Amino acid sequence: MLSHKAMYFGLKREFPDLHIVSEEVSESDKTYQEDSSLLNLSALEEMNLHLGNYDTLVPNEDITVWIDPLDATQEYTENLTEFVTTMVCVAVKGKAIIGVIHLPFKDQTVWAWNGHSSNIHYSLKTENINSHMKVIVSRSHSGKVKEIAKIAFGKDTEIITAGGAGYKSLLVAQREVDAYVHITAIKKWDICAGNAIIKQLGGDMTDLKGNEINFLDKTRTDLALNDGLVATFQNHREVVAKLKDFNLNKTS
């Protein structure tokens, strides 16, 4: 909750009319609370991110900010802190534009501004999807996903289990794995920041049917992606096609 308040009210202080969706909601969100620990614009300016002249004016009504104050909560309780992240994502007209993923126990922050810049850079490589695939899945829901991945991509597919959607998205962005697959519903604050980062670096993230993810929400009613998730650094259409083929075969 302290993490939520620092990010939520830090943004509200500078942009009072900003629409923010956070995983955590408290009664104190209804009124602004002054707190000396809150982030402010002067602190941002001191970071000197060297973005250049990228100032962009966007109508307030087009913006939705998604906050996940503590991703991988289960792992946090188990002291598996390597999976823990905090995330903020700025979506414009439903498209993830800016993503920030912070690993508090590694003191590392990864960010990307879609169409502009990022603090990590990886070049695309030409790889054959039929070769050895490395797929990352949720450690808490790994059984069925493992089966699907082995059938869809081949018995030699290497399956890695991990906690936290932010952590798994980062491994895709950093090219440590070929794909991140999730077959059940997932909340949008879990994936918005990863979506922005992966896309800025040249990868892709969609639902399992290949549909783009809409991050527009004004009423706190469209919070989940219900059709699963697949994120890749390349060969995205081929990966989605293989998963579609599996689903069709299972239902035929």
How is this structure best described in words?
- The protein is built from seven helices and 13 strands.
- The chain is α+β, with helices and mostly antiparallel strands.
- Strand 7, helix 4 and strand 8 form a beta-alpha-beta unit.
- The C terminus is likely disordered.
Write the layout of secondary structure elements.
Elements: H1 2-14, E1 20-22, H2 41-47, E2 63-71, H3 73-77, E3 85-92, E4 95-103, E5 108-113, E6 117-118, E7 134-138, H4 142-153, E8 158-162, H5 165-173, E9 179-182, E10 186-187, H6 192-200, E11 204-206, E12 224-225, E13 229-232, H7 236-251
The strand line-up of the biggest sheet is 1-2-3-4-5-6
Rounded Rg: 18 Å
Largest sheet: 6 strands, mixed
Share in β-strands? 15-25%
Mean pLDDT: 83
Q: Helix and strand string, N-terminal first?
A: HEHEHEEEEEHEHEEHEEEH
Counted by DSSP, the helix tally is: 7
Q: Which spans have pLDDT < 50 for at least 5 consecutive residues?
A: 248-252
Helix content: 25-40%
- The chain-level structural class is alpha+beta
Shape: globular
- What is the first-to-last residue Cα distance? 46 Å
Tell how many strands the DSSP assignment holds.
13
